[in-house]
């Protein structure tokens, strides 16, 4: 990695640290993470299944 690339990466990381997410964005991020990890282990898992479970958990 060049010095310029390292500087750009450091800049982007610092900017990302300043970002804030709304509750809806955090929920979407959690579902995406859960789906990605679950589907990797079990390809029968769908996004819809993850969304349904997330709704059930939110209702509790």
Q: What kind of sheet is the major sheet?
A: none
Mean pLDDT, nearest integer? Answer: 94
Order of helices and strands: HHH
Q: How many individual helices?
A: 3
Question: What Rg, in angstroms, do the CA atoms define?
Answer: 17 Å
Fraction of residues in helix: over 70%
Number of strands: 0
pLDDT below 50 for ≥5 consecutive residues: which ranges? none
What distance lies between the first and last C-alpha atoms, to the nearest angstrom? Answer: 48 Å
How much of the residues is beta strand, in percent?
A: under 5%
Question: How is this structure best described in words?
Answer:
Helix 2 packs across helix 3 (47-59). The mean pLDDT is 94. The chain has helices spanning 3-18, 23-41, 47-59. The chain has three helices and no strands.
Q: Could you list some keywords that capture this structure?
A:
mainly alpha, elongated, 0% strand, 60 residues
Write the layout of secondary structure elements.
Layout: H1 3-18, H2 23-41, H3 47-59
Helix pairs in contact: 2-3
Briefly, what is this?
This protein is mostly helical and 60 residues long. It has helices spanning 3-18, 23-41, 47-59.
């Amino acid at each position: 990695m060049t010095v310029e690339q390292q500087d750009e990466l450091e800049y982007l990381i610092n900017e990302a640290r300043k970002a804030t997410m709304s509750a809806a964005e955090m929920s979407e991020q959690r579902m995406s993470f859960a789906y990605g990890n679950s589907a990797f282990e079990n390809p029968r898992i769908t996004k819809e299944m993850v969304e349904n479970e997330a709704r059930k958990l939110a209702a509790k």
